[in-house]
Specification:
Layout: H1 3-27, H2 30-46, H3 57-79, H4 103-114, H5 118-129, H6 134-141, H7 145-163
Protein backbone atom coordinates (compact mmCIF):
# COMPACT_ATOMS: atom_id res chain seq x y z
CA UNK A 1 0.00 0.00 0.00
CA UNK A 2 1.39 3.41 -0.90
CA UNK A 3 2.31 5.95 1.75
CA UNK A 4 -0.28 8.36 0.32
CA UNK A 5 -3.09 5.79 0.79
CA UNK A 6 -2.01 5.08 4.36
CA UNK A 7 -1.99 8.79 5.16
CA UNK A 8 -5.46 9.24 3.66
CA UNK A 9 -6.82 6.28 5.58
CA UNK A 10 -5.64 8.01 8.77
CA UNK A 11 -7.20 11.31 7.70
CA UNK A 12 -10.42 9.49 6.90
CA UNK A 13 -10.53 7.83 10.32
CA UNK A 14 -9.75 11.13 12.05
CA UNK A 15 -12.01 13.48 10.09
CA UNK A 16 -14.81 11.63 8.29
CA UNK A 17 -17.21 11.88 11.24
CA UNK A 18 -16.44 15.55 11.82
CA UNK A 19 -16.82 16.39 8.14
CA UNK A 20 -20.06 14.41 8.00
CA UNK A 21 -21.40 16.47 10.90
CA UNK A 22 -20.69 19.70 9.01
CA UNK A 23 -22.00 18.39 5.69
CA UNK A 24 -25.20 17.07 7.29
CA UNK A 25 -25.89 20.36 9.02
CA UNK A 26 -25.34 22.17 5.73
CA UNK A 27 -27.50 19.95 3.51
CA UNK A 28 -29.85 18.20 6.01
CA UNK A 29 -29.79 14.89 4.22
CA UNK A 30 -27.88 11.82 5.42
CA UNK A 31 -27.08 10.29 2.04
CA UNK A 32 -26.12 13.60 0.46
CA UNK A 33 -23.86 14.40 3.44
CA UNK A 34 -22.16 11.00 3.11
CA UNK A 35 -21.71 11.58 -0.62
CA UNK A 36 -20.20 15.01 0.05
CA UNK A 37 -17.72 13.60 2.57
CA UNK A 38 -16.79 10.81 0.17
CA UNK A 39 -16.28 13.30 -2.66
CA UNK A 40 -14.24 15.56 -0.32
CA UNK A 41 -11.74 12.79 0.32
CA UNK A 42 -11.60 11.83 -3.35
CA UNK A 43 -10.86 15.42 -4.32
CA UNK A 44 -8.28 15.81 -1.56
CA UNK A 45 -6.61 12.56 -2.60
CA UNK A 46 -6.47 13.57 -6.26
CA UNK A 47 -5.22 17.07 -5.38
CA UNK A 48 -2.69 16.01 -2.76
CA UNK A 49 0.22 17.13 -4.97
CA UNK A 50 -1.31 20.62 -5.25
CA UNK A 51 -1.76 21.03 -1.47
CA UNK A 52 0.61 23.86 -0.54
CA UNK A 53 0.58 23.14 3.20
CA UNK A 54 -0.14 26.81 3.98
CA UNK A 55 -2.81 25.53 6.36
CA UNK A 56 -3.46 22.32 8.26
CA UNK A 57 -4.80 19.36 6.32
CA UNK A 58 -7.92 19.48 8.50
CA UNK A 59 -8.53 23.08 7.43
CA UNK A 60 -8.16 22.05 3.81
CA UNK A 61 -10.57 19.12 4.26
CA UNK A 62 -13.19 21.32 5.96
CA UNK A 63 -12.86 23.88 3.17
CA UNK A 64 -13.39 21.21 0.49
CA UNK A 65 -16.40 19.82 2.38
CA UNK A 66 -17.97 23.25 2.87
CA UNK A 67 -17.45 24.17 -0.78
CA UNK A 68 -19.02 20.90 -1.95
CA UNK A 69 -21.91 21.46 0.47
CA UNK A 70 -22.48 24.95 -0.89
CA UNK A 71 -22.32 23.64 -4.47
CA UNK A 72 -24.91 21.01 -3.54
CA UNK A 73 -27.18 23.66 -1.98
CA UNK A 74 -26.94 25.81 -5.11
CA UNK A 75 -27.88 22.87 -7.31
CA UNK A 76 -30.68 21.86 -4.97
CA UNK A 77 -32.15 25.37 -4.95
CA UNK A 78 -32.30 25.26 -8.76
CA UNK A 79 -33.94 21.83 -8.76
CA UNK A 80 -36.27 22.32 -5.81
CA UNK A 81 -35.79 21.51 -2.13
CA UNK A 82 -35.55 18.12 -0.52
CA UNK A 83 -37.30 17.59 2.80
CA UNK A 84 -35.28 18.25 5.92
CA UNK A 85 -34.42 15.02 7.69
CA UNK A 86 -34.44 14.43 11.41
CA UNK A 87 -31.09 14.65 13.10
CA UNK A 88 -28.53 11.97 12.40
CA UNK A 89 -27.64 9.49 15.10
CA UNK A 90 -24.64 11.07 16.76
CA UNK A 91 -23.76 11.50 20.40
CA UNK A 92 -22.50 15.00 19.60
CA UNK A 93 -25.87 16.16 18.24
CA UNK A 94 -26.50 18.74 20.92
CA UNK A 95 -22.85 19.48 21.65
CA UNK A 96 -22.72 23.27 21.64
CA UNK A 97 -26.45 23.55 22.36
CA UNK A 98 -26.22 22.84 26.08
CA UNK A 99 -28.17 25.98 26.96
CA UNK A 100 -31.15 24.75 24.98
CA UNK A 101 -33.12 22.63 27.38
CA UNK A 102 -35.82 21.07 25.27
CA UNK A 103 -35.57 19.50 21.86
CA UNK A 104 -38.47 21.55 20.49
CA UNK A 105 -36.37 24.69 20.83
CA UNK A 106 -33.41 22.90 19.21
CA UNK A 107 -35.63 22.02 16.24
CA UNK A 108 -36.85 25.61 15.99
CA UNK A 109 -33.27 26.86 15.94
CA UNK A 110 -32.35 24.23 13.37
CA UNK A 111 -35.09 25.58 11.09
CA UNK A 112 -33.82 29.11 11.65
CA UNK A 113 -30.29 28.05 10.68
CA UNK A 114 -31.76 26.84 7.39
CA UNK A 115 -32.91 30.42 6.74
CA UNK A 116 -29.43 31.90 7.02
CA UNK A 117 -27.39 32.86 3.98
CA UNK A 118 -24.89 30.17 2.94
CA UNK A 119 -22.02 32.24 4.37
CA UNK A 120 -23.83 32.81 7.68
CA UNK A 121 -24.86 29.17 7.84
CA UNK A 122 -21.35 27.77 7.47
CA UNK A 123 -19.90 30.20 10.02
CA UNK A 124 -22.74 29.53 12.47
CA UNK A 125 -22.37 25.75 12.12
CA UNK A 126 -18.60 25.85 12.56
CA UNK A 127 -18.84 28.14 15.60
CA UNK A 128 -21.92 26.81 17.38
CA UNK A 129 -22.05 23.15 16.56
CA UNK A 130 -18.42 22.32 15.86
CA UNK A 131 -17.05 24.87 18.38
CA UNK A 132 -14.21 26.14 16.24
CA UNK A 133 -12.50 29.38 17.24
CA UNK A 134 -12.90 32.46 15.06
CA UNK A 135 -9.29 31.99 13.94
CA UNK A 136 -9.94 28.38 12.89
CA UNK A 137 -13.11 29.38 11.04
CA UNK A 138 -11.20 32.14 9.26
CA UNK A 139 -8.69 29.55 8.08
CA UNK A 140 -11.35 27.10 6.94
CA UNK A 141 -13.40 29.73 5.11
CA UNK A 142 -10.39 31.66 3.85
CA UNK A 143 -11.72 34.84 5.47
CA UNK A 144 -10.48 37.46 7.91
CA UNK A 145 -11.22 36.97 11.60
CA UNK A 146 -13.16 40.25 11.68
CA UNK A 147 -15.33 39.08 8.80
CA UNK A 148 -16.01 35.78 10.56
CA UNK A 149 -16.96 37.57 13.78
CA UNK A 150 -19.27 39.95 11.93
CA UNK A 151 -20.88 37.11 9.98
CA UNK A 152 -21.46 35.11 13.16
CA UNK A 153 -22.93 38.15 14.89
CA UNK A 154 -25.29 38.76 11.95
CA UNK A 155 -26.37 35.11 11.97
CA UNK A 156 -27.11 35.14 15.69
CA UNK A 157 -29.00 38.44 15.41
CA UNK A 158 -31.07 37.10 12.52
CA UNK A 159 -31.97 33.96 14.47
CA UNK A 160 -32.82 35.97 17.59
CA UNK A 161 -34.97 38.36 15.58
CA UNK A 162 -36.84 35.51 13.92
CA UNK A 163 -37.40 33.80 17.25
CA UNK A 164 -39.04 36.97 18.51
CA UNK A 165 -40.19 36.81 22.10
CA UNK A 166 -38.75 33.43 22.98
CA UNK A 167 -36.47 34.00 25.96
CA UNK A 168 -33.16 32.44 26.88
CA UNK A 169 -32.55 31.06 23.42
CA UNK A 170 -29.00 32.19 22.79
Amino acid sequence: MSEKKIIFEEFYRDYAGKLYSVAFRMVNNKQDAMDIVHESFIRAYKSWGKFRQESAVSTWLYRITLNLSLDFLRKRSKNGCLPIEKDFEDDRLYFGEQDIINSDMANIIKREVEGLTPKQKKVFILKCYEEFTYKEIAGITNSRIGTVKATYFQAVQKIKKNLGGKKNVM
